[in-house]
Design a protein that fits this description.
The complex is a heterodimer.
Chain A: H1 6-17, H2 23-35, H3 37-55, H4 66-75, H5 90-114, H6 116-124, H7 128-190
Chain B: H1 8-16, H2 23-42, H3 45-61, H4 72-90, H5 111-129, H6 133-144, H7 149-156, H8 160-180, H9 183-186
Classes of the chains: A mainly alpha, B mainly alpha.
Chain lengths: ~190, ~190
């Protein structure tokens, strides 16, 4: 004979309240309740709880005129303003266009810098008015790339220096910041 | 335009385009749900009316933050429960007018049956009010609003195991509370 202890009976009572108690489990629980007065008393209270809950299962109706009262308040508020002053997706597109121009300029500048001799040779075959105009463009692009490469290498060098010295600290700080950011984002999303 | 044929999401989009009149349909769809949750959590109909209105204002103000990760009803229940919990924090309600709450009982019951059923509801509601919100919310949503464990987990943003645990523990606390009441009050009704 399999005797059930009171904690098992307790978990069966929870299953009973979830309405997922199997036939076999029901039989075992009944058997236990016949012998254990304490569990039987608990079960009677749970049954009382369940029947009281069932009395109120359906939704309670909102009072008469509730929607009108809410809409009266809503109508006194500012309606949402659609963003009509810019076409939809304009800002994203503008960012893409600017980024494309920047990339093409950098790419062209790099090509001109690395192939300076050949470009100059090619320019000598063009008419003089075009040569001077192209020369100025080539010069400006080369200058831009030069400045950029100097700045990038300076930033890169100093960053490397710091990273080497404080690599572990940076990593820890970065991870903490990322975790805080994620936590705040989740909290903001949930708690309105 | 047939407003009733529009989905919740379509109505939200129209509201966000400045057509606030469409919010009325959302209010009509969910007013009973919100009102039921509030009444069951605070047990005061007058206060519940005001709170439910505040909840709909809050829903309207935050419509642009709704994301389709969850059903709109789940989002609404989350806002409603959070709002009531905040209300409890701000105002510690010591006495609740349980007698003011009218419960709908099955028609055709005899006056005696109506009395005993009303008493059963009253005793349970009183015991429920004394539970901390962290246990009361899952119990109300599970037993009175018929939400699943998973839906409650989505509403309160806790793992499923925690929800189950709180419901099990909440039931036990409720049982202890009912047992600790005067014998004649409880056992007279059993």
């Amino acid at each position: 004979m399999n005797y059930m202890d009171c904690s098992k009976a307790g978990s069966y009572m929870m299953k009973y309240m979830d309405q997922i108690l199997s036939e076999e489990e029901t039989f075992k629980l009944n058997e236990h309740l016949e012998k254990c007065a304490s569990c039987k008393a608990d079960f009677i209270v749970y049954q009382h709880m369940m029947s009281s809950f069932c009395l109120e299962e359906s939704n309670i109706e909102a009072p008469e005129g509730f929607a009108d009262r809410v809409m009266c308040k809503i109508n006194s508020m500012e309606p949402y303003k659609p963003d009509n002053f810019l076409p939809e997706g304009f800002l994203e597109n503008a960012a893409y266009i600017l980024w494309s121009i920047f990339s093409v300029s950098i790419g062209a500048g790099l090509l001109l810098t690395f192939n300076h001799e050949q470009v100059m040779k090619l320019l000598s075959y063009t008419p003089s008015w075009l040569e001077s105009w192209l020369n100025s463009i080539v010069f400006n692009l080369e200058q831009m790339v030069m400045q950029l490469s100097l700045s990038v290498s300076a930033i890169f060098d100093s960053t490397l220096l710091y990273i080497n010295d404080f690599r572990d600290i940076f990593l820890v700080v970065f991870l903490i910041l990322a975790a805080i950011q994620l936590f705040l984002y989740q909290k903001e999303k949930i708690k309105i | 335009m047939n407003v009733k044929g529009l989905s919740d999401y379509e109505l939200i989009c129209l509201c966000l385009k400045g057509e606030q009149i469409f919010f009325e349909e959302l209010v009509n769809r969910y007013k009973n749900l919100v009102y039921s949750i509030v009444v069951r959590m605070i047990n005061d109909k007058d206060e519940a009316d005001d709170l439910a209105q505040e909840i709909f204002i809050k829903i309207y103000r935050n419509l642009d933050k709704y994301q389709t990760d969850y059903k709109f009803s789940t989002w609404i229940i989350r806002i409603s429960t959070n709002h009531v919990i905040d209300y409890h924090r701000k105002k510690r309600v010591e006495t609740t007018n349980i007698e003011d709450v009218e419960y709908e009982l099955p028609s055709g019951s005899s006056p005696e049956e109506v009395f005993f059923e009303k008493e059963k509801s009253r005793v349970l509601s009183q015991a429920l009010q004394e539970l901390p919100d962290m246990y009361k919310v899952p119990l109300v949503l599970y037993h009175q609003q018929s939400l699943s464990y998973q839906e409650i987990a989505d509403v309160i943003n806790e793992p499923l195991s925690k929800v189950k645990n709180r419901i099990f523990r909440g039931r036990k606390m409720l049982k202890e509370n009912l047992i600790s009441r005067k014998g004649d009050e409880l056992y007279g009704l059993l």
